[in-house]
Amino acid sequence: MEIVILDDPGAIARLAADTIAALLHEKPAAVLGLATGSSPLSLYDEVAARCARGELSLAEARGFTLDEYVGLGAEHPERYRNVIDREFTSRVDIARDAVHGPDGLAEDVPAACAAYEEAMAEAGGVDLQILGIGTDGHIGFNEPGSSLASRTRIKTLTRQTRLDNARFFGGDLDAVPTHCLTQGLGTIMAARHIVLIATGEEKARAVHELAEGAVSASWPATVLQHHPHVSVLLDDGAASHLRMAGYYRETYAAKPGWQGL
Fold this sequence. Notes:
GO terms for molecular function: glucosamine-6-phosphate deaminase activity; identical protein binding. This protein is an alpha/beta fold and 261 residues long. It has a domain at 9-190: 3-Layer(aba) Sandwich (Rossmann fold), CATH 3.40.50. 32% of the residues lie in helices and 15% in strands. It contains 8 helices and 10 strands. The chain has helices at residues 9-26, 41-52, 80-87, 109-122, 159-165, 185-189, 204-212, 245-254; strands at residues 2-5, 31-34, 62-65, 67-69, 99-100, 128-131, 153-156, 179-182, 193-198, 230-234. Strands 1-10-9-6-2-3-5 form a 7-stranded parallel sheet. A 3-stranded antiparallel sheet has the order 4-8-7. Helix 7 links the parallel strand 9 (193-198) and strand 10 (230-234). It is globular. The N and C termini lie close together (11 Å).
């Protein structure tokens, strides 16, 4: 696990975008894992700006979203497929039909989840998965207690996650769905490179557990300690509980010829 502490979200976005650019230079048809929530928004802004300037192209790339609410109507603005379209797909040159997500309106949920796993496998797997992290340590919607080997499935959202997400629903907790479809922890771990972005002091406890705690289903993100290539990009607030923050800073500063992650 590679911990990088940077001064501000803009620097985080630039480094993450550099990493995506390097991947696409080497593999134009790369498969990206796309997260929603507030954590990746600055990254999506940076990638969109580079596309607008002609510095980056996603024309051959494909994408798979991390999760989806169950039961939100197809036109609901907070349906994650619509969020990805609004915040990312519509702003870059990736083909809209090259981005796929779990079907939160499926009548046969287990079959829809199995089909999603199969589609990712047929695409060759995810080359780079973008992640955020919840205040309780969830990644995707894998809440505390999730199996560390889980695959795409339906999950019940905890009250804390629904409280955290109520801001996207006008502060109305009752408007936040109670269930979701999410890539499992085992699914996420199959990605070849994972870039996790966390900013703000409210994420500091979860980041500490992620990087320095024991691997435990109580903090689902800790499973990433077993991944061979995870890059964790933090600002000072998110890094504020790390006992080894000084070491992480020195390691990053001293790395020769640093080019991406």
